[in-house]
Amino acid sequence: MLLGMLTLTQDLYEQIVAHARRDHPDEACGVIAGPEGSDRPERFIPMLNAARSPTFYEFDSMDLLALHNGMDDRDEEPVVIYHSHTATEAYPSRRDIDLAMEPNAHYVLVSTAESGADEGPVSFRSFRILDGEVTEEEVVFVASYEM
Amino acid sequence: MAIEVRIPTILRTYTDGAKSVNGEGATVADLFKDLESRFTGIEQRLVEDDKLRRFVNVYLNDEDVRFLEGISTPLKDGDSVTILPAVAGGAVAGGMR
Prior knowledge:
Protein name (chain B): MoaD/ThiS family protein
Oligomer: heterodimer
Radius of gyration of chain B: 13 Å
Number of domains of chain A: 1
CATH topology of chain B: Ubiquitin-like (UB roll)
Number of helices of chain B: 2
Structural class of chain A: alpha/beta
Mean pLDDT of chain A: 95
Largest sheet of chain A: 7 strands, mixed
Pfam family, one (chain B): ThiS
CATH superfamily of chain A: Cytidine Deaminase, domain 2
Largest interface: A-B, 35 and 22 residues
Strand order of the largest sheet of chain A: 1-8-7-6-5-2-3
Number of helices of chain A: 3
CATH class of chain B: Alpha Beta
CATH architecture of chain B: Roll
InterPro entries (chain B): Beta-grasp_dom_sf (IPR012675), Mopterin_synth/thiamin_S_b (IPR016155), Sulfur_Carrier/Prot_Modifier (IPR052045), ThiS/MoaD-like (IPR003749)
CATH architecture of chain A: 3-Layer(aba) Sandwich
CATH class of chain A: Alpha Beta
CATH superfamily of chain B: Beta-grasp domain
Structural class of chain B: alpha+beta
């Protein structure tokens, strides 16, 4: 049973998937920021994978600082933190779980294992990761958020 | 005067929810000891074997202290220190740097 929920616009979904395909076979990563406490992902911020690796991702430390400064200026927080797995399923690895440090974020995983950089099926799933515990949640796609 | 320290969400459980706190110390290591004296447990989240933890980033006035002198980086009154957990992960569990 899925308890939580992530509501995301179709447009943001497509931007995440496009980024994952573009960087395949390396892992792609990024953030969707939203107003603090709103749980509403709004501002798409693709990040560079400083590791440029098919099995590891890490935001560059200076990019990370700039990201946080930008969010602070706008009273935003990282509502979604996404990354891709390019040869395995869209489920948090042991390392994803150990390194998940944003208690309020939805951790989105996209797997490009099936279609690679091309159009085709992708797996897109969302999780909460808290104190080493993974909880999958439903993803609801909308055309736009209700006001 | 003091050193302003920005605390990331994950560590605000130690600071009663405060987003930033004031501290003092001649180096980053001393500053973390000062924080530990008031926010018990916070130091071991930042430091391991007298070094910065691999997946913790610390910035002095917008410079990554890893490019300065790491945990021995000198501080002075009026400095601003930002702590941010790395955003990292990936498919394979091995090969941690």
